[in-house]
Amino acid sequence: MGYLCYCCTPLWKIGGSPIYYGAIMTADFNIAVKRLLDAGIGNARNEARWLAENVGEQEFASRLERRLKGEPLQYILGTVPFHDIQLYVGPGVLIPRPETEQLVELALSLHIPDGPICDLCTGSGAIALAMAFQLRHVAFTGIDISEEALRWARRNQNAMGLDNVTFLEGDLYAPRQENARFAMLTANPPYVTSGEYSQLESVVKDYEPRLALEAGDEGLDIITRIIHDAPGHLMPGGRLVMEIGEKQGNAVEQLLSKAGFAAEIKTDYAGRQRFAVAVFNPQH
Predict the structure, then answer these.
(1) pLDDT in tens, 119-175
(2) Three-class SS of the chain
(3) Looking at residues 69-90, what average pLDDT do you find?
(4) 79-280, which class in CATH?
(5) Which residue has the higher pLDDT, 241 or 23?
């Protein structure tokens, strides 16, 4: 799970000497880089630049100490670029990954019936907001069981000024309007197995919400529920686009077929099975 790219702070020479990174003196900056390296952070120079961006020495020192304690860089900076938008993130919400940007691209490329779109396990609202930004004429619903995550989603929506997204709190489909049918369901659900969760890096396990990551012994607890109940929430010809674990393709394809979907498992840019793309056929 790599860190995302931010613009580097340029070097400026102020009054001939000394040299600064933004408002941070080179000597302090270099000490910060060494401390990050000593802490095992390989991308230390870039991280130091991002931590120094647009802040004074005191805030830089505070940011550095938080990073040295293991806090995710994105939480410290407070924002993360995602697809064509910028998202606020922090404690209580999953940090969007580059793979999920590819899910957005897949979903936007599909031909779907006219109708609303629902994003399950919406978290920060990343998928719903990125798609709603592109499809202003489509109504989106984002659902999450975490009140804390939804605070971030609504903050992001307000910052973007989008009025075609509604966020609801609840367990998967529970809070949707009665008899609502969607043209597409999207989801980046928890899919980490219990065994994998115990082995995650501390920067993930100790800070990001377990609720958004871990999903039972096979990592399929939430995925199974999403697929089982999806036919009751999709229009005929509606699509389900979902992120999955790289070892879950065969199991997910079988679940989808049993539920009446024609499914395809697609790979991410690294060649790993990562997405289930399915069309609902009630006559199947």
Answers:
(1) 999 999 999 999 999 999 999 999 999 999 999 999 999 999 999 999 999 999 998
(2) CCCCCCCCCCEEECCCCCEEECCEEHHHHHHHHHHHHHCCCCCHHHHHHHHHCCCCHHHHHHHHHHHHCCCCHHHHHCEEEECCEEEECCCCCCCCCHHHHHHHHHHHHCCCCCCCEEEECCCCCHHHHHHHHHCCCCCEEEEECCHHHHHHHHHHHHHHCCCCEEEEECCCCCCCCCCCCEEEEEECCCCECHHHHHCCCHHHHCCCCHHHCECCCCCCHHHHHHHHHHHHHEEEEEEEEEECCCCCHHHHHHHHHHCCEEEEEEECCCCCEEEEEEEECCCC
(3) 96
(4) alpha beta
(5) 241
